[in-house]
Amino acid sequence: MRLSLLSSKNLTWTIPAFMLLGLVYGYFLNPAPLKAAILPMTFVMVYPMMVTLNIKKVFSKGDGKVLTATQLINFLTVPVIGFFVGKLFFPNSPLVIIGILLISLIPTSGMTISWTGFAKGNMPAAVKMTVFGLILGSILTPFYLQALVGATIDIPMLKVFKQIVIVVFLPMFFGFWTQRILIKRFGQDKYQKEIKQLFPPKSIIGVFGIVFIAMALKSRSIVENPTMLLTYLIPLVVLYLVIFSVSTLVGKLFFKRADSIALVYGTVMRNLSIALAIAMAVFKQEGSEIAIIIAMAFIIQVPSAAWFVKYTDRFFGKSQDKQQPSNETLIKQNVA
Fold this sequence. Notes:
The protein is mainly alpha-helical. It has one domain (15-315): Na+/H+ antiporter like fold (Up-down Bundle). It has helices spanning 11-28, 38-51, 64-89, 94-105, 110-118, 123-149, 157-186, 188-195, 200-224, 228-254, 257-268, 272-310, 312-316, 327-335. Helix 5 packs antiparallel against helix 14 (327-335). The longest helix has 39 residues, at 272-310.
């Protein structure tokens, strides 16, 4: 596979392609042995993105107001929206509700920073949102799951915490030290220009692997009920539409243009890779059903983020900064 295909911009068709491949594989072959690959694939998925993450930037001064507003939306508003969307569309399917909740509880990804840059938003704030949101979301997720769905399905709290440490904090630790070692060995400039770009495609390989396994494990049920995928797609559209609307309204009412853009992408972009990793690592066989709706969220999230860039000026007005650096320069300066 060409490396140019392993891009976040191509997820709108590469994710469905791997979903289809998994569906075919699971229908004609025994998918059970694939379970052994879940944990390695989660590490392949999460570790590379941690190597490029600049954790130290979260402690820099400034952007307190927009950062606070973003996390209030992320952890007070979005989980409630996700829970009610899940209950509305899937009142008798607690596993699917868990999938929607995992989407709602793990905010931001590397694309939060990228899309903020493309729309000429506040990049330093986007970096802080990404790191802070990931850490806070990882800590709060078990408590939210227990509070919202613990009455209808058993949530193994200790197991959830253990798996979050394995799939989030352990890769974060190794990624941080890998980044430091690479910068020390090759220098900041070479790391930024040549080395850092090598890691994101490897992370996407892990995403493809998890999506493939999830579909393979669930293939028989999907083939017997093909409308299942459509019934998953509609509530995801509703979920993202509501989050976009809430974030855009808050941004327009309380923040300037650059902060508003960062707030929107800091709330709308969910860390679907981490959500997939938690679903498959914690819930094992049942995790395949949870993972399918998370995988389908990629199909909604990526094009909607691109669409919002085109209409940013209409929502928040045109950028007044005549001397603003290019999007590519902004992203390189702020991601790592």
